[in-house]
Structure formats: C-alpha cells, structure tokens
Amino acid sequence: MKYVRMPIEIESPEQMGYSTIKNNLSESSYTDTIFKDLDLNMNDLVICYGDHVGHPGLRKEILKGEASNLKIEDVLVTAGAASALFMISTSLLEAGDELVVAKPNYATNIETPKAIGASIKYLPMTFENKFQVDIEALKKLITPKTKLVSLTCPHNPTGTMISESDLKEIIKVVEASNAYLLFDETYRDMSFKFKLPIAASLSDRVISVSSLSKTYGLPGIRIGWLITKNPKLQELFLAAKEQIFICGSVVDEEIAYRYLAKRNDYFPAIKKDMQEKFEIVKAWMETQSYFEWIEPSGGVVCFPRIKPELKVDIIKFYDVLLSEFKTYVGPGHWFEESDRSFRLGFGWPSQSELRDGLKGLESALKASLL
Known about the structure:
Blueprint: H1 7-10, H2 13-16, E1 23-24, H3 56-63, E2 75-78, H4 80-92, E3 98-103, H5 108-116, E4 119-124, H6 135-141, E5 146-152, H7 164-177, E6 180-184, E7 206-211, E8 224-227, H8 231-244, H9 250-261, H10 263-287, E9 291-292, E10 301-302, E11 305-306, H11 314-323, E12 327-328, E13 330-331, E14 342-345, H12 351-367
Parallel strand pairs: 1-12, 3-4, 3-5, 5-6, 6-7
Antiparallel strand pairs: 2-8, 7-8, 9-11, 10-14, 13-14
Helix pairs in contact: 3-9, 4-5, 4-8, 10-12, 11-12
C-alpha cells in the first residue's frame, strides 16, 4: 500500500499548532475532556495485555440501553473509529474491487481504499439535494464487483441524517447485491430529532462503526469499536486487529469503561451545551447575508457555503480569516469539494469563541469580496 497524507491531517489544528488559532471552528468533535474532571483512581490497574476483543465491561456498556438483538460478542473494540475503518477496508477490499462511498465524506473512508487499489464510485450528496442519500442513484452504482458501500449518519461534514425507513431500504439494496454496508454512526448519540437503531442490529451484512472521540470529547484515549452480527466477519476483523495491535491499551479501555458506566452523570451537560451552541449557529445563519447551509440534524458539524452569486477571492478569505481574525474552519478541499464550502464545527469551541469565530467569518468574507 502506498500511503498519502490527507489534507485534513496535514492542515489539522493540532499539526498547525493551537497557538496560531483563537477560534477553532474546524474540529468535528465536542470539547476535549479534562482528565481530572473524570475523578478516576486507576492505581490498582494492571498494565498487561488486554482482552484481544476488548474490555468485556466496556463492550457491555456500549450496548447498554439499546433495544436490539446484539450481544457483546458482536462488539470489537478498536483504537478509535479510524482504525476500525482501516481494518474493514483492508479486510474486505482488494485491488480492483469496487467501493461505493457517499461524498463528501471523512477522508479515511476514501484514502485507504485508494491505497489498496480499489475502484471507488462516488454517491454524490449535494447541497441542492439537501445532502441526502439518493437510493435510486445508489442502486445504479452497485455492480457485481461491489464489495462495500460506505455511508455516514449523522453525516460528517454536513450533519444531515437519513430516516430509519431509508436505512432499511438501503440495507435491502446492499443485501441483494451480496455486498456489505459500512455504516459510520459516530454521531448517533447526538442526533437532534430522532435516533436510529444501531445499523448492525438490522442485518448481518452491516458493520457499524463508532467511537468516544466525537460525541463524548474523548479523542485522546483512542477508543472506538465496530459491531457486526456476522461471526465470520468478527473473526476476520479480530485477525486484522491482532496483526496490527494485538490488543488495545488497557489504560484507555479502562477509562472508557468507567466513563460509559457513568455516562448519565456526564452526557446531559454535553447535550445541553451542544444544543446551545447549535442555536447560536442557527441564529447567526438566519441573520448574516454571505453564507447558506443545509441545517444539520445531528452531530456537531455543518457544511455551509458562500452564496453562489457572490464573487470572492477564496484564498484571501481563508488567509484573512486566520491571520486577522484567528479563526479556523475546515476548507472544502479536505473533503475533495470546492473551498467555497467549509466544515464548521460548533461543538469544540467555547460559546464565546464560537460567537467570535462566526463574526470573523462574516468580516473575512466581506474583506474578500471582489
């Protein structure tokens, strides 16, 4: 495999240096958690090789409260969702195989299959179609060579969602083609209006992926998971995990286990703050005159664009935004889209930083008009 660094990583705020950014509106996660706030004493934890599948208590907590037919044996703990996506692609795809992936999308869902040599077919999610999955278009893209269909819901970077009836229809399409559906549901717990069932509970040809990084503000412990009812796939993915990691970090998994066991103590405050931040962005979108969006239905990101009728020096816009207003967003090329669009993350910054960043967007755009 020939790896190529992704722009979303090269230009990430942690690589650029957080000191250069005052209002970080580029992140796709909730505010980072401070360890002392978890009040954890792990002095008695044995630093050993852990269960290769993952901490049993953690896997149980992942499924806790879910009205589904899933068992802890269906859950494989991974080093964040990114490693789960890597393991799935490298396990199921070979050079020449076809992948159908919704676009725009998180870059890993595209770059790893590219490195393998898979043939990628894009399912466009457009502003004009309200960033929805076109099921009829999906049917036309799938062929006998299609091994994997890759979707994200709530969607990154737009925050849009599909209905449960559409999800079930998509699963029928995938089953009929003898392919698998990779369903990244990392933002599932931050759905605004309705919450989909864990997609893997609906079919043994579905693989659900999630993590604690985005919704819970715990990206530093690198805990994610994949879920599938298919025992052959579980064995395959476990083999991949063992050859890459052997097992996960027992420290990270213990933190994750204890966090999820007390999630009802932590999560209500997160949801309240996230909702307030979303309302700030929504109110701003209704009053400014330079940008338009498809209102998100979940997650902590949206994908506004500069109104098409405006003539703008795009390079100057991003330069002024950062250099003069110390505000950073995720430009469209992170997702192989036009830089007239950008990912705006409203979960990570404080409410005051979010407000200042939104003002900066307006000022930088005004200064860049032609």
